[in-house]
Structures are given as C-alpha cells and as structure tokens.
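<backbone_tokenisation>
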Amino acid sequence: MDGSGIDGVLQDAVERGAVPHVAAIVADRDGVLHEGGAGPRAVGEDPGTVDAGTHFRIMSMTKMVATVAALQQVERGELDLAAPVTEYRPEFGQIQVLEGWDGDTPRLRPPRTPATVHHLVTHTSGLGYWFWNEQLVRYQDATGLPTVLGGARALMAPMVADPGTAFVYGIGTDWLGKVVEAVAGRSLDVVVEEQITGPLGMDDTMFLLDDARRDNCVDLHVRGADGGWRAIGEPLPQQPEWWAAGHGLYSTPRDYVRFQRALLRDGELDGTRILRPETVDAAFRSQIGDIPFPEVIPTADPATTDSLRLGPGWTWGHGLLVNTVDLPGRRRAGSGAWAGLFNTHFWVDRAAGICGSIYTNSLPFIPERDAWRTYVEFEQAVYAAS
C-alpha cells in the first residue's frame, strides 16, 4: 500500500489545527498495511511524535470489546440475550423511565416492558448519555447525579424511552459489563484480559496503565481561549469505582488493530479464535428490527460533542454501527464501525477485506470541520491507496 496520501492527511490535520495529534493504522486479514502519526502527545510540552504504538483513551471503542465478552458467554450457553437484565443484576430493577417533569421535579414510572440483555447490546434499553439527550442533562442538574465519568452512581440514571421502542445510545453497555461480571463471577478487567486481550496478544490494552505506559499516553486536549489546543492531562479516574464496559480501556492503534483483524477474519487471529464465524456474522447484521436508526442525534452538550449527522442508510448490530449501503470511495455495505468520545474511530470492512482506525484525544467529539473531516479524509485515502 502506498501510504503517502494517508500520511499527508494526518500531517495536514495537525498543521491546520484540526487535531492536536493523530495516529492511524490500516490492516487486512494478513497483517498491517500502513501506520503513521503526526503531532506531539501534549501540545506545547512534549516534542515526541505520536505513532501506532502510542497509548490513547479509546472510550466507546471499549464497547465492542465488552460486547465480544458477552457474546462469548452466549456461545458457551452461560448468557441468554433474551433474558431480563434483572435475572443477572437484580439492582437493575430500580431503574425507571423519565416520563416528564412536575416543575423541576422529574416524573418517573416503571418501564412498560422489562429490559433484556439484547436491549443492552443494541442500545434499545432506553438508557442514554447526557451529551446526546437534553432530558438527561436536565435530570443531572436537578438531582446532582454524576455522569459516568464521575462515578458508579451514574449507572442509576433513568431510561428516556421504554425498552425495545427506540435506539438511544448510552450507558447500556456499562450495564452489560455488570452482567458479564455476574455471569463470570470475575471482574470485567480479568474477563477481558483472560478471554480477549490476552489470547490476541494485546498486551498494551487495559483499563489502567502502569507507569511506563502512562508516560506513553497522550494528554486529553481542548480548545483554549485563543482557539488553539491546550493539554488538560488525565480525565479518567485512576482509582475507578467500576470497570467501565462503555468507555474504560486504554489501547494503542497497533494493539487494537489485532482486535479489528480478528473480527475481519470471522473471529480468529493467528490461530486463536475469540468468536464463532456465525456470531461475527450476526454482529455485522442489523439487530434492532423495525426500530429506525436516527439520521441525526443532536448534541445536548456542545462542549462535549457535536451532533452526529450520519443521514440515511445506517443500523446497529451487536456492538457495531453498520452501514447498509456502500459509502462511495470508502467502506462497503455491511461494514461495522464505531468511535470513542475523545475522537477515536475504527471500521472493519469484511467485504473489501480491510480495516482501519484513527486516534486523537480531544474534545469536543466529531466537530464537522475538524476531527470528523480528518476521519473521512483518512478513510478516503485508505481506499484510494488499496
């Protein structure tokens, strides 16, 4: 693969200030095709250039790893996707639906149908995130409930729709992690290491970094008053109250691409199988039935994220965003993808036999002219070179 066009995209993104730094990697079923990077780990402080071996907070790219852990339990007959969540986590029964407001007091009611494990996997449980739901922002302001970045109590946030009625992206995967722990009888960090990252040789993927890896990790960046990038250090708790299946992992592009390649190869990599082929097939198919995937998810917190504007032609599988049509000059229909809140993105295109991912750590998420443009241009450069 001629990676000059890819490297040009990365360098241009840093030079024009779209991102503070960026690393990216491309692979096929047989191995890595190209990797590159541009920019420092911390703007104004670190002269070193990031690359595919640099650590990033991958945030919601954690979700597919946790989903694979759950699907492994399904394959072993230990977990039933159709079962109510309360069968595995009785405390989930305390969660109600936010129906409206009486002045500044939230009005809650029991859900009309019980949420199942399948609802958690497909983001149809009604559980959301504050940054894409104004009602949850209002609820947090009214009750003092923290976000999931602020403590485990956030898992008791209410539903904003009845289970099985709408796609609502949110903390359902964190609850899925709790289910996985209950089934396994072990903590999620141990399950992930024993069942996924260890077998795949992903030695740099973990929930907490040691000192050496911490020095190799980028800082999170936000815009300063002058519009330039400003490093703000480590935003994630280093003594977490729970292992966050929705956002807790750190990884490197070089490490995470091994996970992507395992999905690309129908669940196997270097002789190690983490999922059956039929399980992988199901993950890349729509699993939300007649529930429409929203063409636009408006922001409720512009400092944290822009609106997600995908348009028509998308659905959700098991842990993956799936495009139902080809994207011209980019991935083929049936590809699976997702992203992390601090602007990390990945896709797996089984039809074309290629996967890629791109990493920075900055907020807000997906500003259209900055990180989102960089991501699209990277993907276009990958397919132009392949």
About this structure: Residues 70 and 76 are 10 Å apart (CA to CA).
